[in-house]
UniProtKB/TrEMBL annotation:
A Pfam family recorded for this sequence: SLH
Protein name: SLH domain-containing protein
Signal peptide: 1-25
Origin organism lineage: Bacteria, Bacillati, Bacillota, Bacilli, Bacillales
Top-rank lineage group of the source organism: Bacteria
């Protein structure tokens, strides 16, 4: 007889065992116990009535990062025109600001002093971001135009441009989320949907632009804008993937050092790199170039390396992945080119998940979807500095080791 036990857990994906600063993802695991065998199933991030919608994965990502939440009826209304207040809430949440949910009844009337919209508008005022609804409650609940959204996004990047100039700024920096390369093709006066707005924010994440800045009080010099004749259209897919092999889970070391291979025994690693005498709070062994975790059989099932202040010059340009991502040198752009954009989680956090198939190959999977058995699921993760966009943290692990079951 198979017994089922359901529980809600707070899981630091890919990080409990190795001490990453990655975001906590709250979801549900199902524990299935059959005799002495325990099988864990990841339930993912379901979205109601969006199975066939083009933006399903966008909303799963937005939910996982607490960027967006549903309405009181649990729907997400992806095709509904987004209001200015909703857009601000989504944008600022993506940038790490805590804002209450907008789960309110459409028939409920709020005074401005008690509205959920006060939070995002206080942030907009604090950072001098332009809004139509600061002193006009009705405008908060009106559909935002694309040009207003462009002004807000550009303002969040620390520049002060209005109208067409804000549009040109977004186009020149690849943040316009479309194929238009001229301002007149932008449909400035048009509105857009909640799904399209979330896609704009996804593009900010992919470009590493989710750090919030204050808009200068004085308009920014127009000469700093790109020439419209030089703007090249380049639409980056929201969730692209690149294939990996077993070699991609290994750590490569330059010079005369041997490489670190997933599945290596602790004794062989001690022999090559010197015996580890210290452990982290996550029960991982510390070596000069990396930290390693071993399963109950003494086999490597997770490792991390980072370029902190203490040993940065010692490790920089020395350690790299199979795809050539070099610690302390490669950038966010390098990661996305070689692994795909699907791994972008939030500002500076990039996480990829793969399932090992019966033939030994690895298949890219979405952590937002249900995973029937996480026994053979592995993750490759990076953290990049938000200022320089340079990789300062790499870790690889199995989900089994992460959940420590």
């Amino acid at each position: 007889m198979i017994s089922l036990k359901r529980m809600t857990v707070c899981v630091v994906l890919g990080a409990i065992l190795l001490g990453s600063a990655t975001a906590v993802a709250e979801s549900k695991l199902q524990e299935q116990i059959d005799k002495d065998e325990v099988i864990w199933t990841w339930r993912g991030f379901p979205v109601i009535d969006m199975d066939d919608h083009w933006a399903k994965r966008l909303f799963q990502w937005g939910i996982s990062q607490n960027i967006i939440n549903g309405y009181s009826d649990h729907s997400f209304k992806p095709d509904q025109a987004i209001t200015e207040a909703e857009f601000l809430k989504m944008l600022y949440r993506a940038m790490g600001k805590a804002i209450p949910n907008a789960n309110v009844s459409a028939n409920r009337i709020y005074r401005s002093s008690e509205s959920w919209t006060e939070g995002p508008y206080r942030i907009a005022k604090q950072y001098n971001h332009p809004t139509a609804g600061e002193n006009n409650f009705a405008m908060r609940m009106s559909a935002i135009t694309k040009v207003r959204a462009a002004e807000i996004i550009s303002a969040s990047q620390g520049v002060h441009y209005n109208g067409q100039d804000a549009i040109i700024y977004l186009m020149g920096h690849g943040l316009s989320n479309g194929e238009a390369n001229l301002p007149e093709q932008f449909d400035a006066a048009g509105t857009f949907s909640r799904a399209e707005a979330l896609q704009w924010i996804r593009q900010l994440a992919i470009h590493g632009n989710l750090k919030i800045y204050e808009r200068p009080k004085v308009p920014t010099d127009l000469s700093l804008l790109p020439n419209t004749n030089d703007i090249a259209v380049k639409v980056i897919p929201d969730f692209s993937i690149e294939p990996v092999t077993a070699e991609d889970f290994n750590l490569f070391i330059l010079d005369d050092f041997p490489n670190l291979k997933f599945g290596d025994t602790k004794s062989s690693i001690d022999e090559r790199f010197g015996k580890s005498t210290e452990k982290t709070i996550f029960n991982s062994n510390m070596y000069p170039l990396f930290t390693a975790h071993f399963n109950q059989h003494g086999e490597l099932d997770g490792w991390k390396t980072e370029s902190d202040d203490y040993d940065f010059h010692y490790r920089v340009n020395l350690l790299h992945t199979n795809k050539g991502i070099v610690l302390g040198k490669s950038t966010l752009s390098d990661i996305l080119t070689r692994y795909g954009t699907a791994g972008v989680s939030k500002q500076g956090i990039i996480e990829y998940y793969y399932k090992k198939m019966e033939d030994g190959t690895f298949q890219n999977i979405s952590i937002y979807d249900p995973i029937k058995d996480i026994e053979n699921v592995y993750t490759i993760n990076f953290i990049v500095d938000y200022k320089t966009q340079v990789v300062n943290y790499i870790f690889v692990t199995s989900l089994k080791a992460t959940l420590d079951y």
